[in-house]
Amino acid sequence: MKRYHFRLATVLRVRRAEEEAAKLELRAANVALREAVAARDLAAERYRALAAEGATTGSVADLHAQRLHAGLLAEQVAAAERLAMERTGTAVLAQARWSKAAKRVAVLERLDARRRQEHLAEEQRAEIAVVDDLVTARYASERADLDGADALEPVQ
Question: Whole-model pTM above 0.85?
Answer without folding.
Answer: no
